[in-house]
């Protein structure tokens, strides 16, 4: 790793914040995807039974 000198804390904090935000974005997207798939499955089942 290159010597960052007096900017090490700032640069490493920016990298850390980026990693945390990307992980949060991936988690939120994954949760929304599961909810959408679940809701779609419910709609498909209810449309097959004719209760929509």
Task: Record the SSE blueprint.
Blueprint: H1 8-49
How would you describe this protein?
By secondary structure, the chain is mainly alpha-helical. It has one helix spanning 8-49. It has a domain at 24-52. It contains one helix and no strands. It is rod-shaped and about 70 Å long.
What string, H for helix and E for strand, traces the elements in order? Answer: H
- As a whole number of angstroms, the C-alpha radius of gyration is 22 Å
Strand content: under 5%
Mean pLDDT: 92
Oligomer: single chain
Helix content: over 70%
Largest sheet: none
Uncertain residue ranges: none
- Total strand segments: 0
Number of helices: 1
Q: What is the end-to-end distance?
A: 60 Å
Summarize the structure.
The protein contains one helix and no strands.
Provide tags for this entry.
single chain; mainly alpha
């Amino acid at each position: 790793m290159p010597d960052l000198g007096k900017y090490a804390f700032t640069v490493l904090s920016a990298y850390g914040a980026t990693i945390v935000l990307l992980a949060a974005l991936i988690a939120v997207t994954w949760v929304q995807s599961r909810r959408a798939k679940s809701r779609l499955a419910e709609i498909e089942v209810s449309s097959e039974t004719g209760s929509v």
